[in-house]
Amino acid sequence: xxxxxxxxxxxLVIFTIGLIVAVSRxxxxxxxxxxxxxxxxVNLSFVGFAKTLPSDMSIxxxxxxxxxxxVAAAEACxxxxxxxxxxxxxxxxxxxxxxxxxx
Amino acid sequence: MLALIYFIILGVIAVGSALCVLLxxxxxxxxxxxxxxxxxxxxxxxxLGSPFIGVVQIMVYAGAIIMLLTFVIMVLNAAxxxxxxxxxxxxxxxxxxxxxxxxxxxxxxVRAPLAFDAxxxxxxxxxxxxxxxxxxxxxxxxxxLFEVIGLLLLSAMGAAVLMAKKRLGTNEEEK
Lengths: 103, 175
What we know:
The complex is a heterodimer of chains A (about 100) and B (about 180).
Chain A: H1 4-24, H2 28-50, H3 55-58, H4 60-90
Helix pairs in contact in A: 1-2, 2-4
Chain B: H1 2-23, H2 27-48, H3 51-76, H4 91-109, H5 125-132, H6 142-164
């Protein structure tokens, strides 16, 4: 039988992969993709936990992911605009080249 | 039993394409692997009984966000960034740290007692919209959050247009 634990473990695995992609890849597009992957895993965890609750409480866990998806859309929009702007200044998508704050 | 088989198939596809995102060289291949991962996650949402979230996932993530990401990747760099190295020396410390963190969380997680509730609600379009747009005074009040999300998306769109456009009234060469 399908257990709720399997869903949480899948969400944890995908979150870990997203975290590793976001912090260890150097290309700036992969950083954005890792953040999206981690947000997806959190949505999956929300839905998985919502299915363990009785009726009136389980609605909440299925509505919050909708807001998370909308915030992720806004984040991708602004983030890609920033990538375009940085690329115009630096001609590079390597995040190690963005060292303005290093002093 | 059938649900478990479907879950294993979709989960293996999701994790495998997430690993493809981690290991792919060109960001376009990474974006296409991300589409596969998100589609299989939408399938898992449908399997768990939240079909509306699955449809929104396909429309917004696989449709809008990845389309935008692929568009920007193709506009910005044709083949230029394939010279960018994938990992550097910091990754040697970061990747084991993330693995140890997820190991600790997983160790706590597998000891937690969890079970499916028998009277949980299927997140269909009807029940989701009735809860989301419940404007009664004693209701949950999600409609206020919905308005705030609309304002957030509008301001994000304005900010993106203002940041990504060329400066108006300046010449090309002086920038």
